[in-house]
């Protein structure tokens, strides 16, 4: 299914394994494109099971063929916990992905875990501004916000993306690049998160959803019945392409 108007593509695969295979090729192709065009590839990770979905990148042929030296890695959100804590999105990504591929350590931009939620959000925004100033990170000519090459996102059962939850005032933040939340409905409560203007200024977004947990949210987001109150995931509109990677289970209500 492809929608040319809002650059949305929905791909449904038989199994989660097929999603992982296709997602690895998609990421590797974009890595090659941006490495050639810009000399670097800026990639944003989320937490959750997305990290498991990108496992094929750590295996042949990709582990040997991707230009890992061009990668710059960021997080769309992070929990305010030490980096070695079981709830840390950095730890999840390090254990499942970053420790298995040769991305230079200086190009992995973890959120500062020694600061408060507010301080860590401000600090991360400062890091991003410096990278825009030095040309590592592109800037959107449309919005003026940083333009990441690719965001790899998951979605929660309530339709949340990053740490942007349904009905929360942070959905309306339109000035800050990075902000903080002290009352996340999903634990842990203190987090930092990219804002929608930053998410929507990115070039490409892969939205990866597999398994039974998000069947209803996928249906609300992509089904034929109009959803009166937009889920956070329905506000995601990157500049080039939003591509959904679903397995048959996650898409089961769409096919009814
Ligand atoms: O709390 C979070 O949840 C979302 C979705 O996670 P999942 O386990 O349902 O895949 C995740 O994308 C976000 O980064 C994380 O902090």
Automatic annotation (TrEMBL):
Enzyme kind, highest EC tier: hydrolase
InterPro entries: 6-phosphogluconolactonase_DevB, 6PGL, Glc/Gal-6P_isomerase, NagB/RpiA_transferase-like
EC numbers: 3.1.1.31
Matches recorded under SUPFAM superfamilies: NagB/RpiA/CoA transferase-like (SSF100950)
Record Pfam families: Glucosamine_iso (PF01182)
Keyword Hydrolase: yes
Keywords: Hydrolase, Isomerase
Similarity-based family: Belongs to the glucosamine/galactosamine-6-phosphate isomerase family. 6-phosphogluconolactonase subfamily.
Name of the protein in question: Probable 6-phosphogluconolactonase
Protein source organism: Populus alba
């Amino acid at each position: 299914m492809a929608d040319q108007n809002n650059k949305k593509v929905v791909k449904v695969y038989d199994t989660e394994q097929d999603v992982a295979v296709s997602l690895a090729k998609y990421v590797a192709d974009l890595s090659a494109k941006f490495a050639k065009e810009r000399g670097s590839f800026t990639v944003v990770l989320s937490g959750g099971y997305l990290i498991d979905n990108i496992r094929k990148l750590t295996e042949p042929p990709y582990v040997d063929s991707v230009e890992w030296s061009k990668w710059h890695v960021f997080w769309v959100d992070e929990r305010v916990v030490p980096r070695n804590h079981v709830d840390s999105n950095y730890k999840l990504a390090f254990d499942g992905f970053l420790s298995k591929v040769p991305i230079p350590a200086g190009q992995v931009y973890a959120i500062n875990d020694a600061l408060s939620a507010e301080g860590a959000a401000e600090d991360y925004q400062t890091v991003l501004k410096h990278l825009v100033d030095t040309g590592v990170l592109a800037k959107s000519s449309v919005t003026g916000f940083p333009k990441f090459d690719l965001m790899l996102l998951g979605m929660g059962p309530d339709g949340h993306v990053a740490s942007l939850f349904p009905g929360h005032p942070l959905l309306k933040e339109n000035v800050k690049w990075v902000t903080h939340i002290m009352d996340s409905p999903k634990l842990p409560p203190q987090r930092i998160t990219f804002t929608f203007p930053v998410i929507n200024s990115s070039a490409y977004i892969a939205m990866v959803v597999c398994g039974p947990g998000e069947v209803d949210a996928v249906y609300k987001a992509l089904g034929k019945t109009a959803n009166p109150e937009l889920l956070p995931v329905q506000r995601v509109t990157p500049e080039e392409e939003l591509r959904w990677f679903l397995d048959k289970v996650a898409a089961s209500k769409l096919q009814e």
